[in-house]
Here is the input.
Amino acid sequence: MISHDEFENEIIDIRRVSKVTKGGRNLRFRVTIVVGDRKGQVGVGVGSTREIPRAIQQAIRDAKKNMIRVNMNGNTIPHEVIGRFKAGAVLLKPAYPGTGVIAGMTVGAICRLAGIRDLLSKSIGTTNPITLARATLDGLAQLRSRREIEELRGIAPSERKEEVTVDDPA
Here is the structure.
């Protein structure tokens, strides 16, 4: 198990939100944070309190509870995938080495903290940072390695071809 000290975090969004009650408006701050170790683990959390520092701490705790493991193929993802959450969808495509993470702020932060260095992406449907973050996590959670797909299809180890990675020049 990885200790919590090894995680880096990045703030995606800070918003002032309010609830109107009989006594007036209750103002709070909502913070969305990405937490990752750059080695394949990443999580997104949301915190909402009256002070920003407490909201950040709450969001970090929430993100650590909602961590996922990302299957990677070198510095990129193994295959193209579409992640969906509510009205948002995010298309994630593998890229050649040296391409970099070509994505918006939210998707790019999540992919960088997951350890992905080469990726192409397109967000479809919404610009809400929380929805995009959850759609990105859905897409990353759908990723499967070549070996996992072969096992699901029932291909025996003797029938498997040599695994070719994107890093090979051939």
Observations:
- Strands lie at 8-21, 24-36, 41-49, 67-69, 81-85, 88-94, 101-102, 119-124.
- The two ends are 37 Å apart (CA to CA).
- The longest helix spans residues 52-65.
